[in-house]
């Protein structure tokens, strides 16, 4: 840990502090707005504000939009159900619940519709003015929560997606190091742990890209989806390379591997810095690496060495395929 670092601001600590500050802003703004109007529905507004703040400004906006539509639908369905003939609230409550839950099953982001519909329908004598004031309070809280996400230390989905992509690129670089060591060391448990970590990082990448609504691209212009696809392809190609190397370690492939090892080591010497450049390019304002001539030359050298050994071991076709895919994926990561 650097000598002047603050533990709270590392890793998840920044997320905790950011959400805390946004919560303070949203609660204070909601209280001020509702207190000025002397609304009796302050608690509803506070709940709405707190439930709007999400992991990013993009996600908060998505929640807010769903909340606004959901409040309108829920209030309308609740009033319609409350107007059904008969005594008691059971029938109106059942009708409101069935209708709104069916809507939510198709559009989960409208989940607030079910809440509002049930609240309105459960009132035996709902007052239109009171229900509209309640809906307005919820909308105010929702808007304050969304505004806090954009105005107080905003973090966008693309930033979170880039951080997850950097972790996935680190996993690929680590696997390449294990492949180089695999000539002499098995490292099975370490590989399994790394594979599990990559799958977790990849899932995080896709979930964060899905929440991104604004400028889903890297600073260099590459789309997040395309970069994620390139990282995943690179990983799979490295897995194939790793399996071929580990198979060739045993007799009779050890001698062949010894002849291939210098070319693979030279390639590794170029891939490491290149992946580091790709990783740094994912930060704001940094251009993506474009000079991949040395990297491609080393990959082609390894490909030629592999082709020269195909007559001795047809199984090395898989190695050739892996090298081709590694080169393609790395070029794609290098820029649009």
Kindly describe this structure:
By secondary structure, the protein is an all-alpha fold. It is built from 12 helices and no strands. The chain has helices spanning 12-36, 42-52, 57-82, 90-106, 112-121, 128-151, 157-181, 188-211, 224-249, 254-281, 293-308, 317-333. Helix 1 (12-36) runs antiparallel to helix 6 (128-151), helix 4 runs antiparallel to helix 5 (112-121) and helix 10 (254-281) runs antiparallel to helix 11. The two termini are 36 Å apart. The model is unreliable at 1-8 (pLDDT under 50).
Number of helices: 12
**Would you report the number of β strands?**
0
Shape: elongated
**How much of the polypeptide forms β-strand, as a percent range?**
under 5%
Kindly, what is the distance between the CA atoms of the first and last residues, rounded to a whole number of angstroms? Answer: 36 Å
Helix content: over 70%
Secondary-structure map:
Blueprint (H helix, E strand, L loop, with lengths): L11 H25 L5 H11 L4 H26 L7 H17 L5 H10 L6 H24 L5 H25 L6 H24 L12 H26 L4 H28 L11 H16 L8 H17 L3
List descriptors.
336 residues; mainly alpha; 74% helix; elongated
Short account of what is shown:
The protein is mainly alpha-helical and 336 residues long.
């Amino acid at each position: 840990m650097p000598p002047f670092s603050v533990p709270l601001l590392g890793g998840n600590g920044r997320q905790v502090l950011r959400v805390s500050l946004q919560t303070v802003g949203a609660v204070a703004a909601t209280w001020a707005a509702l207190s000025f109007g002397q609304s009796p529905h302050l608690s509803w507004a506070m709940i709405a504000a707190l439930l709007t703040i999400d992991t990013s400004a993009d996600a908060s906006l998505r929640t807010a939009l769903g909340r606004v539509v959901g409040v309108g639908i829920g209030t309308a369905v609740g009033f319609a159900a409350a107007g059904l003939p008969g005594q008691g609230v059971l029938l109106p409550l059942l009708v409101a619940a069935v209708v709104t839950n069916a809507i939510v099953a198709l559009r989960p982001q409208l989940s607030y519709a079910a809440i509002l519909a049930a609240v309105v329908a459960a009132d035996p004598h709902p007052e239109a003015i009171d229900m509209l004031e309640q809906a307005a309070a919820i909308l105010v809280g929702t808007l304050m929560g969304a505004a806090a996400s954009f105005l107080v230390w905003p973090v966008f989905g693309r930033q979170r997606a880039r951080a997850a992509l950097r972790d996935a690129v680190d996993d690929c670089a680590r696997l390449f190091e294990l492949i180089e060591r695999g000539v002499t060391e098995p490292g099975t448990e370490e590989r399994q742990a790394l594979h599990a970590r990559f799958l977790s990082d990849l899932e995080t990448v896709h979930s964060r890209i899905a929440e991104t609504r604004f400028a889903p691209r890297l600073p260099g212009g590459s789309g997040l989806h395309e970069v994620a696809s390139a990282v995943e392809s690179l990983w799979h190609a490295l897995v194939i390379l790793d399996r071929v190397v580990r198979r060739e370690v045993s007799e009779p492939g050890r001698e062949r591997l010894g002849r291939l090892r210098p070319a693979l080591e030279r390639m590794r010497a170029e891939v490491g810095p290149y992946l580091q450049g790709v990783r740094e390019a994912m930060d704001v304002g940094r251009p993506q690496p474009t000079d991949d001539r040395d990297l491609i030359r080393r990959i082609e050298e390894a490909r030629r060495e592999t082709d020269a050994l195909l007559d001795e071991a047809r199984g090395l076709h898989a190695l050739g395929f892996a090298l081709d895919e590694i080169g393609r994926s790395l070029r794609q990561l290098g820029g649009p």
